[in-house]
Write a structure and sequence with these properties.
Layout (H helix, E strand, L loop, with lengths): L3 H39 L7 H12 L10 H4 L7 H8 L1 H10 L8 H16 L11 H12 L3 H8 L27 H20 L11 H11 L6 H8 L5 E4 L6 H9 L4 E5 L2 H14 L5 E4 L3 H7 L5 H9 L5 E5 L14 H7 L3 E5 L6 H16 L3 E6 L4 H9 L5 E4 L7
Parallel strand pairs: 1-6, 1-7, 2-4, 2-5, 3-4, 5-6
Helix pairs in contact: 1-2, 1-9, 2-6, 2-9, 5-6, 9-16, 10-12, 11-12
Length: about 425
Amino acid sequence: MISKAVEDEFNHLVTSQKNFFNDHSENVSMYIKRFVERLDKDIPSLNLTDLFKFHVELAALVHDIGKLAIPLEILSKKKTLTNREYQIIQNHTQYGTYYLCNLFKYCKTDEDFDFASVCQNIVLYHHERNNTIHIDGDLLKKIIEEDIKPNIPQIENELQIKVPELKTTYLGMVEGQVRITEFDDIYKNYCIMKGLLHRLDHCSSAWIPVENENKDEISKFVENFMNNQNFKLNDLQQFAKINHNKNVIVIGSTGMGKTEAALLWSNHDKTFFTLPLRISINAIYDRIKETIEYEHVGLLHSTAIDYLDDKNEENEFEKIEQARNLYEKITTCTIDQIFPFVFKYRGYEKIYATLSYSKVVIDEIQAYSPEIVAVILKGLQMINNLNGQFMVMTATLPRIYKDKLEEMGIKFVYRAHRLTEQR
């Protein structure tokens, strides 16, 4: 656990913001605590430690602390913000790094430094999207001089506290080299923390649900459907069902019921079902929702809203928003909707963290170009590194794909099936 000195300084930061704008931060912290507790209960394979749960809850508490440096009349303004006012609010992530830098003064142990680094990175990067953020000491010094210092009297008056003398000694801690990367021991935990915070921060602000918590198991719906049709599970489907807790690669001909096999493998877990073509994804979406009669499925691709509108589905805009926020138990989607996380664009952790407790189905991998397959294989390696699981099912599989996964050190079960019976 963190030392008492670091804990005391952190509590001081939380107290400083409590009477100013704390409702949102407390809501996010509460939501993320509940969410992580549910993940820990439902998916023990995530191995979420008490230290992880402690860190993510506290980091959420201070993620918006930089707003202390923003004039109250801007924060509370009801009318449209001017460009200058908008930019000032956008800079709250940078302002927040100044407050968090003070934590490093009290760090003595590895646990202290890990905690301070995670908090600082989350504060600085929690609003980043697919754009570049570069912070340097000179820029932060300018922000302190031009934006923070002039507002100190108002901050002291509003919070009834004495702001200590502003120093720039620790600004070097927020330059490029301090960003947590895959070479740091805390990288995996940081990715999950930051990614979950991205989702919960957005949902808390927009008052939309984070996850569909319905307990209906897709595998049971599939078996009920097959029983009603007098179908028996074939070898492929039995293999998928038995190995639902493992990474799986199966080869099976068209007509063997690979879709049902994938849904049996999905079991009760959150799943992303991918195919190369939008028309194929539309068909899978309809099959799950209308034929198998499983309601907790979303559709996510570039023209999904048009398809739902053509079908006259109710609340199509809400459904698209939920799909984009990765809400449903089953999301049917094209590869481009989730696998760009491989390139680690700004904010990629939102999807990457979600995949840490999800399953991913890659259907018909042979239909992709070698360049796209390279991205998929790297993505499967990254998902495996965070304890997510995958199933690759295809009619034909170039041997090099299987060999590459083995070379990456990924464990999986493999089976090739022939069409010996109809489902």
